[in-house]
Design a protein that fits this description.
Layout (H helix, E strand, L loop, with lengths): L3 H7 L7 H11 L2 H72 L5 H14 L3 E8 L4 E6 L11 E3 L10 E3 L5 E3 L1 H13 L3 E2 L3 E2 L5 E11 L2 E11 H8 L2 H6 L1 E5 L5 E4 L16 E5 L8 E5 L4 H54 L3 E6 L4 E4 L1 H7 L3 H4 L14 H12 L8 E6 L5 E12 L5 E10 L1 H23 L3 E6 L5 E4 L1 H7 L4 H6 L4 H8 L12 H6 L3 E7 L4 E11 L5 E9 L1 H28 L1 H27 L5 H29 L7 E3 L1 H19 L2 E6 L6 E3 L1 H22 L7 E11 L3 E10 L6 H4 L17 H11 L4 E8 L2 E12 L12 E6 L1
Parallel strand pairs: 25-27
Antiparallel strand pairs: 1-2, 1-9, 2-4, 3-5, 6-8, 7-8, 8-9, 10-11, 10-13, 12-13, 14-15, 14-18, 16-17, 17-18, 19-20, 19-23, 21-22, 22-23, 24-26, 25-31, 27-28, 28-30, 29-30
This protein binds adenosine-5'-diphosphate (ADP).
């Protein structure tokens, strides 16, 4: 770096090329500035051009004007000189003639001869006259073309006849000259030299003027020679034609009145207009006030100049206007361009970020464009695809024919709108499924230039679809194979949305079967009755209905003679509609089995009662024996006392009453046993727990007494009524009491511990609600843990003579009353001190929580 510094200082300074400088400056400007310069520079140059044109026009006009002025001046002077020269020449000739006349060198005739030749050679002279000193015309010659005579400038003094020929000696009658001629005559007489009159109007409205040349003979004035000039002829004959061609030449009198002019009309802009070129020259030395005026003939200079000038101005204005227009147009274009750039960038970004592959082809099928997604999908680079003609590299080799056919279809515009499914081969040879959509590629002019193909990879979608259809197939197979009828009914429309094979088999394809199965469903029934337009579930969120647990009920379909277990639940159907789904399982067989079972259970109950009674037979016999023995004793006693007449009437009555009471007691025992054993249909009725307990304890009492077991009964007060079959509940209690007594007996307990406790209390549990609990406790050996689970099995017994159906029946009776039965051991520390069997029966009314007000009912032994 340090080494470069001295080297660079040796380099010649870079040449400041103006173009390079300009570009350097231009690049330093911001784009906005560049735009402004690009806009205003042409405007400025147009204005400068306009200014230059104006200056040039102004200069050229001035130049032209000066040259024209010069030329007018020169031509006017030429005209003046020509006329003047002629006048002087004529004057000399006249002076010579006057001398000859005055000296009488020529006589009258010779004068006339000279006059004729004089006039003939001079067309400007209209007449030549010889006037005496007394103003009488001695001789006169008039140009044949001149209509006038002396009469127009002199009044005849006497009645002299006018001369008839143009050149005749006059009658010498004196005339009185008037006007200009009179003045000129007097001046010539007085000055004794030729005098020119001022122009005046001659005969025939011709402008004329005269020259009077005095006739002096030895200093005596003897008259004048008068030559009359036509002003117009002077102009016509003595101004050169090239002068009159160039400019307008006129002769004016002292009053600026035009007497004769080379043009019939004044130039348009007038002699006195500011820009007209006018040159006046006096026709001296005549001094008669005649003026030669030259006038710029070509007045068009200004006109043409002006026209050009205004055209340039107008064109410049047009250019400026167009520039401004272009500028505005450019601004619009640049705005459009920036919008277009934004749009293009947006589209490019969109195109690059999208996952759909895009491919454009021309009408021959040559690939003209692929987007990055297409390249990413196929694995081919852009330049490997663009410009390719079919067969394309992404066509699988084994599907060439198919792809060619599809491409032909594509190029003919016959591709289906829903797209076509094709196999695409990646560069690495792997295949994938793609869906292609084809649409025509239209250019800005509306012509089709090719085809645009979009492609999506549907391998995953296809796999999912296949899986879905497989799973759907499985699902349908399962549903179709189900023994149960499955049906879905839309709640709002009552339309059958789905029905499986079993349903169709049993109910056909209509919704009637669904309705019959759902018969117990009140909601649906209500809906069916309601007005069709009212959706009874309208206010219910489908979510809550569908989340509600399915409810089950059993329906008997008469026409099919079948029982169905119907489970209904609300579901949201695939289209979001609320629908009811029913699964109806044919339970006819189970139902029959159940019926049979219950039939048999009933029989078993009766049998069980009989068995119980059979077991209790000796106890019953013993029990009956007592009143019968008592009756016998009473009867025997009464007989012997009646025989011996040793009885009083009152005593007899008392003895008979006692006998009757004993008989009644025996009858009661038999009645109770009969009622218990009598086979009857289970009948639910309102019953009081106290009554059931009393009856059961009475029945059991016989057995207990036999086994020497005491019972201690506790019944809570104000117990609600039960809805039960009292005989069956009695049977349960009797069984439990019998088992307890047997257990005590089996344990061979001492008399002090041989007692059972029966408690009847109200209870309220969260699972069961309000119930009445019956519990039987004993001090027996309890139940072994491993036996606990098997207690309720039918024919399970630990007793040598036991049938093992007692507890099994108990449970089915309790459960048929929606109650529960349970057994538990009682402990005294770690030792089992007894056993408790308890069952519950539900009650409708809330059970008072008090159980302290119970009373001990009985204590029997
Ligand atoms: P069975 O009395 O004919 O044996 P159960 O069904 O009434 O039939 O009783 C089944 C079994 O339950 C009895 O064999 C006995 O082992 C047991 N068991 C019943 N009650 C009691 C009890 N209070 N104490 C101990 N074991 C009992």
């Amino acid at each position: 770096m340090t080494r470069h510094a001295p080297d660079s200082s040796l380099d010649p300074p870079p040449k400041a090329h103006p173009r390079r400088l300009f570009w350097a400056w231009w690049k330093r400007q911001s784009p906005a500035h560049q735009d402004r310069f690009a806009t205003f520079a042409p405007l400025l140059s147009v204005l400068l051009f306009l200014a230059a044109i104006i200056t040039a026009f102004w200069y050229l006009r001035n130049e032209e004007f000066e040259r024209e002025q010069e030329s007018v001046k020169r031509d006017t002077e030429i005209a003046q000189q020509q006329i003047r020269l002629r006048l002087i020449e004529n004057q000399e000739q006249l002076v010579r003639m006057a001398r000859e006349v005055a000296t009488h060198a020529i006589d009258l005739d010779e004068f006339l001869g000279q006059a004729v030749s004089f006039a003939r050679e001079r067309p400007e002279v209209v007449s030549l006259s010889w006037i005496d000193a007394d103003q009488s015309v001695k001789a006169r010659h008039t140009s044949p073309n001149y209509p006038g005579d002396l009469m127009h400038w002199a009044d005849p003094v006497s009645a002299a006849s006018a001369p008839e020929s143009p050149a005749v000696p006059a009658a010498s009658a004196p005339v009185a000259l008037r006007g200009e001629p009179a003045w000129a005559f007097a001046a010539a007489r007085d000055l004794r030299q030729p005098v020119y009159s001022r122009p005046y109007e001659g005969s025939g409205a011709l402008s004329v003027f005269q020259v009077h040349v005095p006739l002096i003979d030895r200093s005596a004035f003897s008259g004048t020679l008068v030559a009359e000039y036509s002003v117009e002829s002077l102009l016509r004959y003595f101004v050169p034609a090239e002068v009159t061609r160039r400019h307008a030449i006129s002769l004016l009198d002292s009053n600026d009145r035009v007497l004769a002019s080379s043009v019939s009309r004044e130039p348009a802009n007038g002699a006195h207009s500011s820009n007209g070129i006018v040159q006046d020259v006096a026709l001296a030395p005549s001094g008669n006030g005649l003026v030669v005026r030259g006038q710029g003939w070509r007045t068009s200079i200004g006109l043409i100049g002006n026209t050009l000038f205004w055209m340039v101005v107008a064109l410049s204005a047009l250019t400026v206007w167009m520039l401004l227009g272009t500028w505005r147009h450019m601004r619009r274009r640049s705005q459009m361009q920036s919008t277009l750039v934004t749009e293009t960038n947006f589209r490019r970004a969109m195109e690059n970020s999208m996952l759909t592959g895009m491919r454009a082809m021309d009408l021959e099928g040559r690939i003209s464009y692929v987007n990055p997604a297409f390249c990413a999908m196929t694995g081919f680079a852009e330049d490997e695809l663009i410009g390719r003609l079919p067969p394309f590299p992404h066509w699988p080799p084994d599907r060439m024919e198919e792809n060619t056919r599809l491409l032909q279809q594509e190029l003919q515009g016959r591709s289906p709108a829903g797209g076509i499914e094709v196999k695409i081969m990646r560069k690495d040879g792997t295949l994938f499924d793609a869906r292609m959509y084809v649409s025509p590629l239209i250019d800005a002019k509306g012509h089709q230039t090719g085809w645009m193909t979009s492609m999506t990879n549907i391998t995953e979608a296809k796999r999912i679809r296949d899986q879905l259809s497989a799973s759907h197939e499985r699902f349908t197979t399962v549903l179709e194979g189900l023994e149960a009828a499955v049906s879905v009914l839309s709640v709002a429309q009552g339309e059958l949305l789905f029905a499986n094979r079993s349903y169709r088999l049993w109910f056909g394809a209509d919704s009637q079967g669904h309705a019959r199965l759902a018969g117990a469903d009140e909601a649906l029934a209500a809906r069916r009755d309601a007005d069709e337009s009212v959706d009874s579930f309208g206010g219910l969120p489908a979510q809550e209905l569908t989340e509600a647990s399915s409810d089950a009920h059993e329906v008997f379909i008469e026409s099919l003679q079948k029982w169905f277990d119907v489970r209904a639940r609300y579901v949201q159907w695939t289209d979001g509609r609320l629908a009811q789904m029913l699964i109806a399982t044919d339970i006819t067989a189970r139902r029959r089995a159940e019926e049979q079972a219950s039939h048999q259970a009933e029989k078993a109950q009766v049998t069980s009662r009989l068995v119980t009674m059979g077991e209790m037979a000796s106890s019953v016999a013993h029990e009956l024996n007592q009143p019968l023995t008592a009756i016998t004793n009473y009867c025997n006693g009464m007989v012997s006392r009646v025989k011996s007449d040793a009885i009083e009437k009152d005593d007899l009555i008392a003895a008979l009453e006692k006998t009757a009471r004993q008989a009644h007691r025996a009858g009661q025992i038999i009645h109770r046993i009969r009622a218990f054993v009598k086979r009857s249909e289970p009948q639910r009725q309102t019953a009081k727990a106290r009554d059931i307990v009393e009856d059961a304890v009475d029945l059991a009492g016989i057995e207990l007494k036999r086994r020497n077991v005491h019972i201690h009964t506790y019944i809570a007060q104000r117990l609600p009524d039960l809805q039960v079959d009292p005989i069956l509940i009695e049977q349960v209690l009797l069984n439990l009491l019998k088992n307890a007594a047997e257990a005590i007996d089996h344990a061979k307990l001492p008399p002090s511990r041989r007692h059972i406790e029966l408690r009847v209390v109200p209870r309220h549990t969260p699972e069961e609600g309000g119930v009445i609990e019956f519990s039987v406790r004993d001090n027996g050996p309890g139940v072994k843990e491993e036996m606990m689970a098997r207690l309720y099995e039918a024919f399970f017994s630990t007793k040598a003579d036991g049938l093992g159906i007692g507890l099994s029946l108990c449970r089915s009776i309790v459960e048929s009353h929606r109650g529960r039965i349970r057994a538990e051991n009682l402990y005294n520390g770690p030792v089992i001190s007894g056993c408790s069997f308890a069952f519950t029966l539900p009650v409708e009314l809330p059970v008072p929580a008090t159980e302290t007000h119970g009373v001990t009912l009985t204590e029997t032994s």
